[in-house]
UniProtKB/TrEMBL annotation:
<keyword id="KW-0325">Glycoprotein</keyword>
<dbReference type="InterPro" id="IPR003137">
    <property type="entry name" value="PA_domain"/>
</dbReference>
<dbReference type="InterPro" id="IPR012341">
    <property type="entry name" value="6hp_glycosidase-like_sf"/>
</dbReference>
<protein>
    <recommendedName>
        <fullName>alpha-1,2-Mannosidase</fullName>
        <ecNumber>3.2.1.-</ecNumber>
    </recommendedName>
</protein>
<feature type="active site">
    <location>
        <position position="235"/>
    </location>
</feature>
<dbReference type="InterPro" id="IPR001382">
    <property type="entry name" value="Glyco_hydro_47"/>
</dbReference>
<feature type="domain" description="PA">
    <location>
        <begin position="492"/>
        <end position="583"/>
    </location>
</feature>
<dbReference type="GO" id="GO:0005975">
    <property type="term" value="P:carbohydrate metabolic process"/>
</dbReference>
<feature type="active site">
    <location>
        <position position="347"/>
    </location>
</feature>
<dbReference type="GO" id="GO:0016020">
    <property type="term" value="C:membrane"/>
</dbReference>
<dbReference type="GO" id="GO:0004571">
    <property type="term" value="F:mannosyl-oligosaccharide 1,2-alpha-mannosidase activity"/>
</dbReference>
<dbReference type="InterPro" id="IPR044674">
    <property type="entry name" value="EDEM1/2/3"/>
</dbReference>
<dbReference type="InterPro" id="IPR046450">
    <property type="entry name" value="PA_dom_sf"/>
</dbReference>
<dbReference type="GO" id="GO:1904380">
    <property type="term" value="P:endoplasmic reticulum mannose trimming"/>
</dbReference>
<feature type="active site" description="Proton donor">
    <location>
        <position position="329"/>
    </location>
</feature>
<dbReference type="Pfam" id="PF01532">
    <property type="entry name" value="Glyco_hydro_47"/>
</dbReference>
<dbReference type="GO" id="GO:0044322">
    <property type="term" value="C:endoplasmic reticulum quality control compartment"/>
</dbReference>
Length: 683
């Protein structure tokens, strides 16, 4: 995917700032129809090339990285008469240069690549930093939102400097890049200006609520827009406070973040929603929709160590993405599309990654897989990846975008389960108010699976590490003892046991600790092997059949049973592979040495679309008037449907349905009208 996007940019667009993936050409400022503020990220400085430098190293494309650095050094110039966004230029160009410099320096120190490099990217970053500094020349210390790269702010030729406002995120998202630039260059002026801007925002917070607004006057520090949330306009201010503490170790940033975070959790967080409120009166909500930029917030909560609300909000966002293929730019509290665009934003993917790293729950791998598959299915075009103009129609835009934690995968699932059907009901999770003149229908549902004979539930061993990435799936049999994988899937790296039959003490016990053991069937009982391996600290066992040539296509699956004694002491997950499937797994281990697998029921494997099993259901409908509900008792859960006055049938209609052939039929239209004519206003 990276090669497709970056290759298309280099082939069709470079040295332009951006690729137009539908037109297969570069977007050059002034040569295409003006898109307003969105074009302020374009500065005739090969934006995409610089923004991508460090990614090339992360993906181990070192030859391409060296070539890209040479291009940036020889081709990119900043002395351009163009007005750019201070915020966008900082995070993408200055940040890209600094990331590229750190990577180039690292490779040079290793002695493998970049031996010619002498801090050229850092020198470019210092030059760009000085071209951004005029924006900070305000009475408050908050920066102008825009600056002319050649003429600054006050020069008559600058065509900017008339703005009076900036967004909180625009002023508060400078500290990481400016502080790094100061530390790397030795010029303290950049970090000083970024700190000053943060000091002003902190000082101007609403002292009663500890919240900040969305837009602030850069001259007098007065709030222009007082709504407070964690989405557009504020988002990265909070992110940079936390990450500034991580990068710089200055506790003042952590203290400020924690103060804001307490206020966010008190007023803005209404799990799983994150709603905007008025900063001076935070009990008052100001809008009924959320924007997609808030998708970064679960990831930030993970960094802070607050997992439960992160899981709740992430699950809400995932339910919305499943409903619309992508996260729409904004959506209502009832999870309907508010703004239909999807601009290929990375925030939801980032939060998914953080949650996977924090919980070890393979669920988040599957979320990640769905993100990738939807990008390839719906956003991929011949010259890159295109933004989606409307998630409801799928049309494209010619735009290219950009141990604190429990290692217990089931932890997150218990929280997510409460939000499984969030979007399906099309209404926010609030109880409906009592109203006069309303009938309530109580549905008492007794739900149970149709009884069946006990069958062997097919399991799988799924290889998820590169190069397999979930595509290699081996059919496996379950065990009647050990961890129940139908309730909790399990994953880890595999190691071959020595001796291979594991009917006694294990020679490579240290290697097995925290890994899934591969062991050969035979010589002793399954339970005996499992006990020896559990003592080593192994986290799972895959038994491989010793009968050569056996396979799941020709041999029925079976459940492994214990040794006749109690097996309650065995808590490991256990699965069985026939010989042919086992040979695939051992060959993968010999070739790649580090192989990660998931052990889980077949229907839950990554990429598997299961059909819902039918269930039997008995439903009783009782129509009652207000006040009668409490008098009716029934076991099990109930659902209440509220029908507004104009929608409800009269009692006579419901009672007067005609009996035909022994079955109840609804009233005809005529009889319905005649009955309705007698219904009073309180019906």
């Amino acid at each position: 995917m990276f090669d497709h996007a970056y290759g298309s940019y280099m082939k069709h667009a470079y040295p332009a700032d951006e690729l137009m993936p539908l037109s297969c050409k570069g977007r050059v400022r002034g040569q295409e129809p003006n898109r307003g503020d969105i074009d302020d990220s374009l500065g005739k400085f090969s934006l995409t090339l610089i923004d991508t430098l460090d990614t090339l190293v992360v993906l181990n494309k070192l030859e391409e990285f060296e070539e890209a650095v040479r291009k940036a050094v020889s081709d990119v110039r900043f002395d351009n008469d163009v007005v750019v966004s201070v915020f966008e230029t900082n995070i993408r160009v200055l940040g890209g240069l600094l990331g590229g410099h750190v990577m180039a320096d690292l490779l040079k120190q290793r002695g493998e690549k970049m031996q010619w490099y002498h801090d050229e990217l850092l020198h470019m970053a210092v030059e760009l930093g000085h071209r951004l500094l005029p924006a900070f020349n305000t009475t408050s210390g908050l920066p102008f939102p825009k600056v002319n790269l050649r003429y600054g702010i006050v020069n008559p030729l600058s065509r900017t400097g008339t703005e009076s406002d900036t967004c909180t995120a625009c002023a508060g998202t400078m500290i990481l890049e400016f502080a790094a630039l100061s530390r790397l260059s030795g010029e303290s002026v950049f970090e000083e200006h970024a700190r000053k801007a943060l000091d002003v925002l902190w000082e101007r917070r609403q002292k009663g609520s500890d919240l900040v607004g969305t837009v602030i006057n850069i001259h007098n520090g007065e709030w222009v827009r007082r709504e407070s949330g964690v989405g557009a306009g504020i988002d990265s201010y909070y992110e940079y406070l936390m990450k500034a503490y991580i990068l710089l170790g200055d506790h003042v940033f952590l203290q400020r973040f924690n103060t804001h975070y307490s206020a966010i959790m008190k007023y803005i967080s209404q799990p799983p929603l994150l709603l905007n409120v008025h900063m001076h009166n935070p009990t008052v909500g100001v809008r009924s929709w959320m924007d997609s930029l808030l998708a970064f917030f679960p990831g930030l909560q993970v960094l802070r160590g607050d997992l439960k609300p992160a899981i709740e909000t992430h699950e809400m966002l995932y339910q919305v993405t499943k409903q619309h293929k992508f996260l729409p730019e904004a959506f209502t509290t009832e999870f309907r599309v508010h703004w239909g665009q999807h601009l290929l934003r990375p925030e939801f993917a980032e939060s998914t990654y953080y949650l996977y790293k924090a919980t070890g729950d393979p669920y988040y791998l599957r979320v990640g897989q769905s993100i990738v598959e939807k990008l390839n299915t719906y956003a991929r075009v011949p010259c890159g990846f295109a933004a989606v103009q409307d998630v409801r129609t799928g049309t494209h835009e010619d735009r290219y975008m950009e141990t604190l934690f429990p290692n217990n995968p089931s932890f997150a699932k218990t929280i997510r389960d409460g939000y499984k059907y969030l979007t399906g009901v099309g209404r926010a999770l609030h109880s409906l108010p009592e109203q006069k003149g309303v009938y309530r229908v109580r549905i008492v549902a007794e739900v149970g699976a149709t009884p069946e004979e006990e069958a062997v539930v097919p399991h799988v061993v799924q290889l998820i590490s590169p190069p397999f990435l979930g595509r290699t799936v081996l059919t496996a049999g379950p065990a009647k003892f050990g961890m129940d994988l139908t309730k909790q899937e399990h994953g880890g790296s595999i190691v071959k046991v020595s001796p291979y039959t594991a009917c006694g003490p294990v020679d490579n016990a240290a290697e097995l600790k925290g890994r899934i053991a591969l062991v050969l069937r035979g010589d002793c009982m399954f339970a005996a092997k499992a006990r020896w391996l559990q003592q080593t600290g192994a986290i799972g066992v895959i038994f491989i059949d010793h009968r050569e040539g056996s396979n799941s296509d020709e041999t029925p699956l079976f459940q492994m049973v214990g040794d006749g004694d109690s097996t309650e002491d065995i808590t490991l997950p256990l699965v069985f592979l026939f010989s042919r499937e086992g040979a695939v797994l051992t060959a993968a281990l010999e070739e790649h040495h580090n192989v990660d697998v998931l052990l889980l029921p077949k229907e839950r494997q990554l990429g598997y679309d299961k059909m819902e099993e039918p269930i039997s259901m008995n439903i009783k409908l009782l129509l009652t008037q207000e006040g009668e509900m409490e008098e009716i008792s029934a076991g099990g859960p109930t659902l209440q449907f509220v029908l507004e006055n104009e929608e409800v049938f009269s009692k006579e209609e419901l009672i007067g349905s005609e009996q035909q052939d022994g079955r109840t039929q609804p009233c005809s239209a005529d009889s319905s009208q005649s009955l309705n004519s007698n219904a009073g206003p309180e019906t």
